[in-house]
Amino acid sequence: MKKYIKLKTVISMFFLVGLIQSCSLDEKNLTTVSLDKSYSERAGFEGLINSCYENLYFLHGKVDYIAPTEAGTDSWENIGTSGIGYAQYTSQLNPDDANIKVIWGTSYATINLCNTAIYYSKDVKGYSTTDELNAVLAEAYFLRAFSNFVLVEQFGGVVLRKTSSIIEGADNSPVRSSEIEFYDLIIEDLKFACTHLPLQQTLQGRVARKAAYGLLAKVYLQRTRLGDVAEYSKLALDTAEELINNAAKYNTALYLSDNTTSGFKKLWDGNNNKKNTEFLFTQGIDPGGLNPEGFNRGRTRQYYLPDLATRGAEWGAGATSILYGRANSRMLRPSKYLLTEVFSPVPSPADTRFGETFTFKFYAAANKTISESMATAYKKDPSVIGYAIKNTLAQALPSVNFYSQKIEEQINMNNDEGLSVFTPNWNIDPVTKSKMPMLVVDPSDLFEPGTNKYKDPAMYPNDPNLINIYPAMRKFSAALYCQSNQYWLGDIPIIRLGEIYLVAAEAAILSDNQTKALGYVNTLRKRAAISSRENEMLVTSADMNIDFILKERARELSGEHTRWTDLKRTGRLNKTYLDQTNPIAGANFVNEKHTVRPIPRSFLDAISNSKEFGTNGY
Amino acid sequence: MKKIIKRNWLSLYLPNISLRMKLTTLFLMLSLMRIQAGVYSQNTKLTLNLNNAPVEKLFNKVESVSQYRFLFESSVIDLNRKITINVKKKGIAEILEEVFEDTDISYSINDRQIILVKKKPQLNLQDKHAVEKIIVEQGIEITGIVTDSKNLPIPSANVIEKGTNNGVQTDLDGKFTIRVSGTNSVLVFSFIGFENKEVTVGQSKSLSVVLNEENSTLNEVVVVGYGSVKKKDLTGAVATVKSSDILLSPVASPMEALQGRVSGLDIQRGSGQAGTSPKVLVRGNRSLTASQDPLYIIDGIPSSIDNLNPNDIETIDVLKDASSTAIYGSSGANGVIVVTTKKAKAGKTQIDFNSYFGLNGFSSFPAPLTGNNWLNYKRDKFYLDNGYQATSLTDLGLNASAIAAIEKGQYVNWIDESLQVGIQQNHNLFMRGGSEKVQGYFSLGYVGEEGIYQNDKVNSFNSRGGIDLKFSDKFKTGFQLILNYKSGSTTNSRINKAYGVYPLGVPYDENGVVNLYPIEGDPNNISILANNYPGAFANESISYNVQFNPYLEFEFAKNFKLRSNLGTKFSGGRAGTFQNKNSYNLLSEGRTASEATYNMTLAYSYIWENILNYNFKAGKDHDFTLTGITSWADNRSEGTYMGGNGIDYDDFLFYNMGAVKNLTTRMNTYSQFNRMSFAGRLNYSFKGKYLFQLTNRWDGVSPLAEGNKWSSFPSASVAWRISDESFMQGTSSWLNNLKLRLGYGVSGSANIDPYSSLTRTSTKTSNLSLGGGTALPMYVPTEHISNPDLTWERSTNTNLGLDVSVLRNRIDLVAEYYWTQTEGILWDRRLPTSSGGYDAKTPYKKTSNIATSENRGFELAINTKNIETENFKWSTSFTYTHGKEKLTNIDLGNLSVSQLISEGLFIGQTPAAGGVFYDYKKIGIWQLGQEQEAALYGAKPGDIKLQTVPQIDANGVSDNGVHVYSTKDRMIVGNNVPDYFFGLQNTFKYKNFDFTVFVNGRYGGMMRAQVLGYWNKEAQPSTYDYWTQDNPTNDFPRPGGTFNTQFQSGLELVDASYIKIKNITIGYSMPEDFLKKSGLNNLRLYMTAYNPFVFSRSHLLKDVDPENGGSDSFPLFKQVIFGLNLSL
């Protein structure tokens, strides 16, 4: 008996103790901390500021930002159905489009993080002075302004958010603000940034004061499209001049030409990429892979490549070249207007900008002897049969290629011994051309005479189809930072000083100060040539008009994600202009509709007032 | 809590603790405090003093003072008969002899069981004493043994010479001796719960008779939550599957073997990848985002079924309705699968060895076009893409190397090159035995599965063992120990790439090594087999699982029992990947730096449950069982993830992350989940005919916010055994059972992710450095925005069931009708992106209870014994399930369901997987002669013909659907829920042969077949019948052009109906004399063809196994296996 009572007591105690201990239903979360705790400390606050940059890495160097900023302008045509919605304003440009969703998401994600940082700046501890805090906080103001600038230009007057959804909750029935309200906030934010950002930052990807001035100048100029031209062009000019006149103070400088190398060439030289004096706002990239999405960066070049995989490969070119990129997702090719009217179609122009913007000589990745059938198929002179195009592929020095991989243009470069595909923007007479021992495609092969259109191969059944062999836009792809045939790990300039000269010139023209404009234009033009040919570049104040500036911007900034907004600002984003310059872009263009992008469906689906909000007419 | 202890016992808990805690705590306390120690004796000699007491009282008395338990049909024994007995230290036999001396009841003592049966009328002999007294003086004497199918002796079985009153009973070893009239005599063997068997004596003097368990499942014990009942007393919808049916399928996952065997249980294998677990759905989809997986309870402990070797399973019970599952509260709504594993039994040591070995493969997947068919196809495509004829192979996109390969005729079918025949095997050894006091068992198993790709394989080793110890009549304890180890490797499915490359080249070099560049001279054409290149690629994982589950059982008083279970679990795994410059991914991207990832996970949990059970009778007709349950669970998991690139020596694989130059991924995970529960259940039976059950469970969980942590889940059910009513007497000759059941209950579902009710700051690891080479700290708000109101999805279920058995249980039918309403369905509402997002591509999410769904269904299960003769038997099982599901309401502001199409907001699978297909509806191909009409839609002959959605203009005028096709023509084309599905099994036994054919099928529903998604690819499948001027097909449009590519997603949607002959098994059991000679109990050899024949309703799916929805990664395959079952 006794024994059992004891056992029973033990058992009851056991269960009791167990039950009491069990009562806690609080779980621990050891990998996160509370919002208030994390953001009221300096480390957490700065971690939040850092995160405000992250989403912008979805734009530059990624497919989502290329067509929406470059296509559908005077400069490019698309290939196949890739980018067709942007390039030709077809039905593919609709609320379901994936690119606009990313641009929209990037902008609003950044804005919300900035708003969260601005909210917590009231509580954060650990800064000895307000100035010290404001120098950090100004980054959030700058990034919010940049994101709102992207939004208002792509989508027009959409939702202007000034509060954090984390703190104040999400808005389920958001309303639109006017474009002017957007600009007001952008300008206010940038003024704060111009005042408080440090003059210099350790990391090239972190914004310093020069970025704020650069962006503010661009914003003022772009604001002129909404009226108050005199006021805002003056502000744009003043802001641009603040930067140009005090370049040293803001740690920026144009690359200038010498006798062998133009300043423009230096600007894009891989060796200057990571400490580029001309970059004002930079997407900073770590070649070691510490980037959002790791090595998957800098993919711009593959969308501009010609067909190296079939036609090019027949002549020895490599389809998955480390140097030129992987030709598997080709999207944009230059328009006739860009190749032959913006750039001078002459063999050796003083202006180096065509040569530095485009690859037009593709070198062989294998030895290739020209066969009789090749000569026949490409209508070559029999004299080229048997000619051996030499392989140029070899191990590159680390100073040439970041990963010491085999790339083209390393050997057999004398007198173009290894030249495989040649796509000049000037015409070569057919007889000479047929005797050149390589695949040569010039504008006469590409374009229908008397039009601004590419040829229709169906009309030329007896000729080889060469319309996919064209010069490749090659900014953001210096040899040095080629990591693979898809990834390039150089820094990408988002705003650079050269553009600010053109902002100043355009603002000066709008302010009727042609002389001033000419000064800035000529400074920029001179450094596009080697110093001995500078004089060939000079223009006169008679040239100082918006059309000239637009062409000059194309020569200077092609591929740099400004073209679509440039046309929008200057009133050239209309059917008449596009029909003249690049008819394929003009064919479907509707003036009232296509100056803003559709509103992403995923957003419209998530709000309760999608009908009132509207799709921007799509 | 501490201060409460100072109070007196009675007031303990009462004032401060919520009501739900009170009841069960009280249960526990009472049980612990009130019960006095009983008189106990191990001596089987009994002392009884009863005066004019009912028989029932005697039984109760004997059961209370000894281990003896009485077994009888209540209709047979007159429990109220008054008896007087006064014995001192006498054996049970003597007592029984005295009690039943002058009755028609005979008894037999089987170990501790006392079985009381009515004496057979023909045994009602002159001599009223037991039948063994009968001796027939003349004739021949026969001796023998009666055993069950597992070769265990059956004591007290009746052995009667047919047509006479001559009979005996077997002894405790199942042995008997009987004198019969001659060699023509027929002996009839019978025993309760077993089928009668007749044997002609013949020349044999010694008989060995095996009795088969009676098919009447009524006396079978069915496992319900926290206990078990006899099937006849069941009030809920529970289906049972036995081990023999599970072992019929040669699959690694036990659940796959249940496919088609339980009505209402939809099981589909989604992938042919080795080690894949099937998708299991009980009674349709109810949730939008939450897991629909049922709860698996293995031997009382919530566990994963993936660690079980099918050979270790004794039975699987599927709890379908809420009256059965509500006892599991917040995790019961998806159904509960209760698995009972094989355990020890006292008595003879038993050794079983089950083994099979076979081949996986013979997967038919369409071959890509090759040869001239391919070139012609490319020419057709080129013409449409470009509007002019190709003049050369170069125009077709072929470079010189490819042209050279064509000239050499080096065509390759990359599908064939990708697939192999794998090996499937399962070997399992099971041993059990023990004495009265100590019983033990263990099993060792190995399952090896090789898929149809090289390097896709899983090896798993399973071991389970346990010991039960009986210290005394009152106190029993034991434990179970489970060890699992699994290692596997996998590879990326490349089937989908096979149609995107030239069907050209030389896949292997002369040494049999993969040619990385199969087309000579073309460095851009990378072999899709590159990952098979030696050392190029590895994706290997290891996992382990250790479970130690001790229990103790204490009986305070008769029928008042406490069982306490502790389930502890410690598991983890490692996954490592490696790829070098020769791997497919790196080669195709031109990268050279070797990459590796290394992940470790660790999970540890325990669950402690106490079950208090008390049953008692009030008067003659009222049976009560009370069950009280407490449960406490604590689950935690941790993980580390690392990944990077730049490894100098490939020898390291993923084992030396220190050699990784660029560590790009580094993160930890941590998760904790606590649950506390109390539950109570009352079972009441009136006269065994009217059955009632009431349950309630209170669950408190940690992920929910304060104030919402606790929730209760009640249920009630009733059953009426109509066949037991007196007015049904007349039907008893043919109607064995007729029972009506009605249940109603509420259960919860959706495992709410820990931490989803609160926004916090997480550390982001996307390696932002702003160009500096050092990752910067990033602290961002978590993806989930606070929702303190979050709570469980609650499913309210009503179930109406009917059980019928007729013709001596030869036809057994169970029908169920149910309707379920699920409220508060969780939806990760994506907040408007203008409010920002976790990142640019991930909107913030707020998990909210915002939707309601409804499920209705009808289920039928029929088992018949069509032919039952000694040499030939034929039985059939059939299950049929028809279910409908509907999302009835969702509250997303002002939006209706149809406006939320791009959110994928349809009931079905998780929206990402796409249960409802919103797409273009193909109705054919435009043909020659229809040019004018086609032009109205922007099409030409050879283009896809779509059903259009009429558009209404600003003036309200409809275009009647006549317009150029556009995205506006997408519509709901169908969904993937079948109208019905069924399983049909026929089993034949002829002498020692057995033959089983199992067929299952699904009718209705639609699927998105990836295998139909290769139209217009580089080398589309040769099975595609595509339109040309000479081939006016309606299957596929002409390849090429930009028109059809916009609408090609509509080509993938097809009718998903199919019938499959899932299993054909033929077996042979060795004859008795062979077994005797070799000293075996049983030896059966068999062969199974698994998945051998598939018939799809859509002709487009000919030769494709549609079970996985036409998925192209890891297609399903067929199996042929050879196996043996051996018992010692």
- Measured by DSSP, the beta-strand proportion of chain A falls in 5-15%
Molecular shape of chain A: globular
Distance between the termini of chain B: 57 Å
Per DSSP, the total helix count of chain A is: 26
Q: For the largest sheet of chain A, list the strands in their spatial order.
A: 8-13-14
Q: Residue ranges of chain A: pLDDT <50 for 5 or more in a row?
A: none
Sheet with the most strands, sense and barrel status of chain A? 3 strands, mixed
Largest sheet of chain B: 22 strands, antiparallel, barrel
Strand content of chain B: 35-45%
Structural class of chain B, by secondary structure, is mainly beta
Instruction: Give the uncertain stretches of chain B in residue-range form.
Output: 1-42, 122-137, 906-914
Report on the structure:
The complex is a heterodimer of chains A (618) and B (1128). Chain A has 618 residues and is mainly alpha-helical. In chain A, the strands form seven sheets. A three-stranded mixed β-sheet of chain A has the order 8-13-14, with no helix packed on it. Chain A has a two-stranded antiparallel ribbon with strand order 2-6. Chain A has a two-stranded antiparallel sheet with strand order 3-16. In chain A, strand 13, helix 17 and strand 14 form a beta-alpha-beta unit. Chain A is globular. Chain B has 1128 residues and is mainly beta. The two termini of chain B are 57 Å apart. The interface between A and B is large, with 123 and 112 residues.
Key attributes of the depicted protein:
heterodimer, A: 618 residues, three-stranded mixed beta sheet, 42% helix, B: 1128 residues, mainly beta, 22-stranded antiparallel beta barrel, 12 helices, 8% helix, 45% strand
Question: Strands, helices and their partners?
Answer:
The complex is a heterodimer of chains A (618) and B (1128).
Chain A: H1 2-21, E1 32-33, H2 35-39, H3 42-54, H4 63-70, E2 76-78, H5 84-88, H6 98-120, H7 130-155, H8 165-168, H9 179-196, H10 209-223, H11 229-245, H12 263-268, E3 279-283, H13 308-314, E4 320-321, E5 325-326, E6 332-334, H14 336-342, H15 353-357, E7 358-359, E8 361-363, E9 368-369, H16 372-377, E10 388-389, E11 394-395, E12 406-407, E13 419-422, H17 430-434, E14 439-440, H18 443-446, E15 472-473, E16 492-496, H19 497-510, H20 514-526, H21 546-557, H22 563-569, H23 575-581, H24 583-586, H25 601-606, H26 610-613
Parallel strand pairs in A: 13-14
Antiparallel strand pairs in A: 2-6, 3-16, 4-5, 7-15, 8-13, 9-10, 11-12
Helix pairs in contact in A: 3-6, 3-7, 4-6, 6-7, 7-9, 9-10, 10-11, 10-19, 11-19, 19-20, 19-21
Chain B: H1 2-5, H2 19-34, E1 46-54, H3 55-65, E2 69-71, E3 82-90, H4 92-99, E4 105-110, E5 113-118, E6 140-148, E7 158-161, E8 167-169, E9 175-180, E10 186-190, E11 197-200, E12 206-211, E13 221-224, E14 227-230, E15 238-242, H5 243-246, E16 265-268, E17 279-282, E18 295-298, E19 301-302, E20 313-319, H6 322-325, E21 336-341, E22 347-361, H7 371-386, H8 400-407, H9 414-418, E23 422-434, E24 438-450, E25 457-470, E26 475-489, E27 537-557, E28 560-579, H10 584-589, E29 595-618, E30 622-645, E31 662-686, E32 690-701, E33 710-721, E34 735-749, E35 761-763, E36 779-781, E37 793-806, E38 811-830, E39 837-839, E40 842-843, E41 845-868, E42 872-890, E43 916-919, E44 921-925, H11 931-936, E45 944-947, E46 971-975, E47 980-990, E48 993-1003, E49 1006-1008, E50 1053-1055, E51 1058-1069, H12 1072-1078, E52 1082-1096, E53 1118-1127
Parallel strand pairs in B: 2-5, 6-12, 18-21
Antiparallel strand pairs in B: 1-3, 4-5, 6-9, 7-8, 7-10, 10-11, 13-14, 15-20, 16-17, 18-19, 20-21, 22-23, 22-53, 23-24, 24-25, 25-26, 26-27, 27-28, 28-29, 29-30, 30-31, 31-32, 32-33, 33-34, 34-37, 35-36, 37-38, 38-41, 39-40, 41-42, 42-47, 43-46, 44-45, 47-48, 48-51, 49-50, 51-52, 52-53
